[in-house]
Amino acid sequence: MAELSDKAEEFAGRAQEAAGDLTGDDRLRAEGAADRTEAQVKQKVDDVKQAVTEKTSEVADSAQDKAVEVKHAVADTASDSRVVTALAVAGAALVAALLLRRRARKSSSGSRHKGRAVATKAVTAGLKEAIVR
Hints:
Elements: H1 2-23, H2 26-106, H3 112-132
Helix pairs in contact: 1-2, 2-3
């Protein structure tokens, strides 16, 4: 609506300027030119406002899209971390169960210390792998 009134104001300014030219009235011509120029400036300001609004909207949409992408990436990473942690705990529990079973079998053979060293290395390696991931 403002665009239409600005166009009408520009047209009225042109008409007033033309009337001043026809009658030789410099004051009327100057007022017409001023009205026409003012209307043109208003139109340009409206164009700039619209362009800024559109660009701001584009930037906001882009930022929102990036935020959604980051949110999904964080959720995926958190999910992967939980799976790795669960697998590490399950692996450590399995190693511990196997070592206890082996210890029970070999407790009579006297190789306890060797079994502990192997178990310690296996558990340490499993935990390091879980931490690295």
